[in-house]
Amino acid sequence: MLKAGVLGAGHLGKIHLRLLNESNKYKLVGFYDPNKENAKKVAAEYGYTAFDSIQDLIDAVDVVDIVTPTLSHHDCAVQAIKSGKHIFIEKPISNSVEEAEEIIQLAKEFNVKGQVGHVERFNPAFTAVKDQFDSPMFIETHRLAEFNPRGTDVPVVLDLMIHDIDAILSVVPSKVKSVSASGVSVISDTPDIANARIEFENGCVANLTSSRISLKNMRKSRFFQKDAYISVDFLTKKCEVVKMKDAPENPGDFDMILQNAEGVKKQIYFNNPEVKANNAILDELETFADAINNNTQPIVTLEDGTEALRIAHQIIDCFKN
Length: 321
Known about the structure:
This protein has about 325 residues and is of the alpha/beta class. It has nine helices and 14 strands. The strands form two sheets. The protein has a nine-stranded mixed sheet. Strands 2-1-3-4-5 form a five-stranded parallel sheet, sandwiched between helices. Helix 4 (about 75-80) runs parallel beside helix 5, helix 5 (about 95-110) packs antiparallel against helix 9 (about 300-320) and helix 7 (about 155-170) packs across helix 9. The relative contact order is 0.16. The mean pLDDT is about 95.
């Protein structure tokens, strides 16, 4: 079992602590939190070992799970990597692309593995359909959240939209050609609502909308590709796949048939895969353990996290123009 420690014992950090403690692929050694009062409270309430410094924790483990505020991701990662430890780092990978690139370079230099916590890649509705993506050419996403002051220290793009950016980049087999966007600050110092358009070199277009001042929560993505429409509801963990094929010569009474202006007939049918319940955070942590133990590539690499951050910052730069 890999010895693991968590940096940061806030809301998400406590979830990571619980799951690492339950996992049969890790041995939870303890955690470090700079807020001494919070550290004492978490240690007393859950029985986890609180370390006195970041380095003390790093020295005691094989894997460092970084669940601190984004501004400290880089420094924590660098310290862990230089100590020869593997790192799991929450999204976004760091505050800037330059910091992220340094993390990548150091991980190669010190021969350690890293994974970024883009948890929607492990959402069961997304994993159920991932094998059915075949060069989608139009994508539309809506990620709306009710107001929560906990995330307003960063723009809504880094808080919410980056989930969809990463998911889109993982299914479009092409480089990004251009980015345009607009954003509005309603209650925060940074935009609370944003809309972005990402155009790819292969002609694919993705429209993304994110809001953190919505009256209801929504996390839906729709993918359109030749002869298929794929819908993923990340919130309800449901998916729908609608496909088309050449219509039979003698369709049944209940077959759905479309005929275009040229007289070509297509049959519409549903091919909805089974969605298997899971704990996405546990899955991302345990697949990282598998990557370390088997010396394979993590599912969400440091490079993946960096590319999602790069596009996110291009979107944010659009707000300044």
